[in-house]
Amino acid sequence: MAGKASRMRQVVAVASLLWLLLLPWASAIRRSDFPASFLFGTATSSYQIEGAYLEDNKSLSNWDVFTHVPGSIKDGSTGNVADDHYHRYEEDIELMHSLGTNAYRFSISWARILPKGRFGEVNQLGIEFYNKIIDSLLLKGIEPFVTLSHYDIPQELEDRYGAWLSAEVQRDFGYFADVCFAAFGDRVKYWTTFNEPNVAVLAGYMLGTYPPARCTPPFGSCARGDSDGEPYVATHNVILSHATAVELYRRKYQSKQKGSIGIVMYTTWYEPLTDTPEDRLATERAVAFTVSWFLDPIVYGDYPPEMRRLLGSQLPSFSPEERRKLGYKLDFIGINHYTTLYAMDCMFSSGCPLGQWTQHALAAATGERNGVPIGPPGGPCSTWCLTA
Fold this sequence. Notes:
By secondary structure, the protein is an alpha/beta fold. Helices cover 43% and strands 13% of the residues. The protein has a domain at 39-266: TIM Barrel (Alpha-Beta Barrel), CATH 3.20.20.80. The chain has helices at 2-22, 46-49, 62-67, 85-98, 110-113, 124-139, 155-161, 168-184, 197-206, 230-257, 277-300, 305-311, 320-326; strands spanning 41-43, 103-107, 143-149, 190-195, 260-266, 269-272, 332-336, 340-345, 363-366, 368-369, 372-373. β10 (368-369) and β11 form a beta hairpin. One of its GO terms (molecular function) is beta-glucosidase activity. Residues 1-28 form the signal peptide.
């Protein structure tokens, strides 16, 4: 069984590379076209690969709880075992090395390091696990890129105060970041505070398809939530948690550890469905409500003007002290781009679909124009990843 699993993991890795090579532009790309310092890597997240969900003092995360609720996951699968990376990380790193990669981005399970958040002890067995991963990567010449939060949070914090709906989470995230910087920062030179926080917020607090599964119609039918308000409260706390971690890193660690810190965003791009002023403006609003929503406060100190105009007082404001913290900004912005879509106006047009996450932007997204896809499907998410 172990041999079969190993072969399957190799097939997945090779298949991913083959998919990249099948893209129209890939045949013209050679590694020699890039600077010697260019990093080619792979990426994972803790919940997706680690397994060992209750081993070595780890507590339950929000995803552990969510996936055990019947109906939450289409096929009923969980991350209890996943790829068993917790026990097979050496084999996985050897696979990365065999592919010739020289970078690896992974996330740290908050619940494995701080099972009760700041309300409990640091789990030294969790520290040891990630130390072994980092040391093994460096031994193989692979640069570790570490993400602090990739969708997961200790369920303890959800139960105590509602996680991202409470400003208290900013203090907890700062404490978690401090523990990680102190334990791993002597070897980790690239830190990411959050991976795709816009997805986590929209799916968790607007659509209800991710934990904590909060939503209201027309976005979904959850047992609790407020799709019109909670996404903006959660986002505010995520942004300020990012700022808390960046300020801490700048003041306490960066000059000595010589690393950098940033954020990674889900970045769907939008093009106007028609060449009209209405659809062009809808495109700007769709981008603002998807990407600029998080990046504008970090880079410019406030939410996009498109959001301020449409949401008014529904959108939180930053205090002078919060703006000061945002002034620490970031060192880099990471982009996860899966697809490009058309945007159509819903401000002056009727017949727009309800329940899309662009609805508050008074825009609708579609992958087709007059029945023709914006681009060919590609990769493992071929039902919605359109190459354009």
